[in-house]
Specification:
It contains 22 helices and eleven strands. It is α+β, with helices and mostly antiparallel strands. The strands form four sheets. The chain has a five-stranded mixed β-sheet. Strands 1-2 form a two-stranded antiparallel ribbon.
Length: 574
């Protein structure tokens, strides 16, 4: 049995320790008691397993299968703790993966790599936007590349590859990126060339819940064409869109852009990154640097991610037309989200450049000068983006829900029918969340399926939602009397109305039994409701989709147990 290399062991331990320090600095107050509620990141103590989280709701499956996994896991792990584990895992897991990709390089270059991996505009902006499934896919990306490389080289997939693909497939955009990463790793590079069909089958099984649910909602799966211009890749500070994308920035929502990205620091970041990329390319070509994954898929992924992102900036009209005509085309309109594909190549080239510079200075520079070089190489991403520290400058602080939310859940119970959440606006800025914007959490706290607005307001422009049921609810609320509204809502399957009294916007009275009214929340149960259920064919289709999805997990568990037994036998026999 081969003796472990002590040098490799301590280097890996040092990189892991530095990754932990970085993640602690990035998350900061987010790791404290309470829930981090920011834009689309809405966690509750106990999310109910209900039709909408399984893909059987009336709206598009934007949170499928991520919500279902949360709803199941928070039965075992409290929601507050589960969120902390996810936040830590999506940064530490990715850092560990990219370190393995670069395992053949020196420790200084690997420290620089994990710094750039954890501390860049893409990570910070997506954290504030609350896109945790996207960041889980970001964490899974290097592991999928490693697994695909080993699968192609040996003809056998490592046991953890299905698990990495599953973790990278918890949302539509993350799942598409993960599938592309998997297939590019199998198609490009040395080794077996006939694995793409099995890889495609694995990817389809992992994406099955949102894919099947999306097909069931295909009539509503086109988006407002005007939204493409609003979601397009954007410039940041002195950098136009394409250059902002090169530095992994360019998010559409100016509210989540770190202040440092709006000034000279963004230009400094570009001036620091470009020479490193040039040096990395030159050294990789001249010295035939070998990584744990081939260069070809890294280059392909970067090209696809950057070009598609820039396309949304250069031609938002055609992108909007695509989203308005082709079902599901709207997933491409968020240009900066596609930059997740660019990160592996950028980080690898920076690591190769730093490794080359470190080796070149050996014997030429005095030790203090070399140490200074190492410090600059490792810390420059931090210095050009200082406001990423401490939960994006405190924007990701953890808070507790007011007791009214638990009272509303207890008062309403499961009941009959769904619950309408008012006012009909998507986002709130509650005082108990320090005024930070968040997707209305009330519907996630309650047990019945929520009926809530799916409209979005960007730069004072209203982007129409796709859920036709919400529009019928709006029509019902426009009726003249509380009883008429109650009757119309009941015929739509709404059995209760929950109103956030602190949120701006109209909330018409609806006749019924008042279960709670404490000045913050009001819950009214309607007298009569025509309960609605999804068609049997839909339930069967989603049952098959979830079976395929869970089969991926089962494959990882069974193979992992088999590998553990084989390793144990080898150790005992040795």
């Amino acid at each position: 049995m081969a003796t472990p290399d002590p040098r490799a062991t301590w280097q890996r331990a040092l990189v892991a320790l530095w990754s932990l320090v970085l993640v602690g600095l990035v998350l900061g107050p987010a790791l404290g008691p309470g829930y981090v509620l920011s834009y689309d990141m809405v966690w509750v103590r106990d999310l109910a397993v209900r039709a909408d989280v399984l893909g059987l709701g009336s709206g598009l499956p934007r949170a499928v299968p991520s919500d279902a996994w949360v709803a199941v896991l928070d039965e075992v792990v409290p929601g507050m703790l589960l969120q902390k584990l996810v936040l830590l895992g999506m940064l530490l897991g990715g850092a560990s993966g990219i370190d393995r990709v670069l395992a053949g390089l020196g420790v200084v270059s690997r420290l620089a790599a994990v710094t750039l991996w954890c501390w860049n505009p893409f990570v910070v902006e997506r954290l504030v936007l609350g896109h945790w499934p996207v960041l889980l896919g970001y964490a899974a990306l290097p592991w999928v590349l490693l697994g695909a490389t080993r699968w192609r080289a040996t003809g056998r997939a490592p046991w953890w590859l299905p698990l990495a693909v599953l973790l990278g497939s918890l949302s539509v955009s993350a799942g598409l990126a993960t599938s592309l990463v998997l297939l590019s790793g199998l198609v490009l590079g040395p080794g077996e060339r006939r694995l793409w069909a099995r890889g495609a089958l694995l990817a389809l099984a992992a994406q099955a819940p949102w894919l099947v649910s999306g097909l069931l909602h295909v009539r509503d799966a086109v988006s407002d064409p005007a939204a493409a211009r609003l979601f397009a890749l954007s410039g940041e500070g002195p950098l136009p869109g394409p250059l902002a994308a090169l530095t992994l920035g360019g998010v559409w929502n100016a509210e989540v852009v770190p202040v440092s990205r709006t000034g000279p620091a963004a230009l400094v970041a570009l001036l620091a990154l470009v020479p490193l990329l040039v040096l990395g390319v030159r050294r990789a070509r001249r010295e035939a640097i070998v990584l744990a994954v081939p260069w070809a898929p890294l280059v392909l992924l970067w090209a696809v991610g950057w070009l598609l992102a820039v396309l949304t900036w250069a031609a938002p009209g055609p992108v909007g037309l695509l989203a308005g005509v082709v079902p599901g085309g709207g997933v491409l309109r968020d240009g900066s989200r596609l930059l997740v594909l660019c990160v592996p190549l950028l980080v690898a080239l920076v690591a190769v450049a730093v490794d080359g510079a470190w080796r070149w200075t050996r014997g030429r520079w005095a030790t203090p000068a070399r140490v200074s070089l190492a410090v600059v190489a490792v810390l420059w991403p931090v210095t050009v983006l200082p406001d990423a520290a401490w939960g994006a400058g405190g924007r990701l602080a953890a808070v507790d829900y007011p007791v009214s939310y638990a009272d509303a859940r207890a008062a309403l119970g499961e009941g009959a029918g769904d619950v309408l959440v008012l006012p009909l606006s998507s986002y709130r800025q509650p005082d108990w969340n320090d005024g930070h914007k968040v997707l209305d959490p009330l519907g996630r706290v309650l047990l019945p399926v929520p009926v809530a607005s799916d409209e979005l307001v960007v730069d004072d422009v209203v982007i129409e939602g796709e859920d036709q049921r919400v529009q019928r609810v709006r029509d019902a609320l426009d009726l003249s009397t509380p009883q008429a509204r109650a009757d119309a809502l009941g015929s739509l399957g709404v059995g209760a109305v929950a109103t956030d009294l602190t949120a701006p916007g109209p909330a018409p009275d609806v006749a019924g039994e008042t279960l709670l009214d404490d000045g913050r929340l009001r819950v009214v149960r309607l007298d009569e409701v025509d309960e609605t259920t999804s068609p049997t064919s839909w339930q069967v289709a989603m049952g098959l989709a979830w079976t395929a999805h869970l089969a991926v997990l089962l494959a990882a568990v069974v193979t992992g147990v088999r590998c553990a037994r084989q390793r144990l036998r080898r150790n005992l026999s040795g």
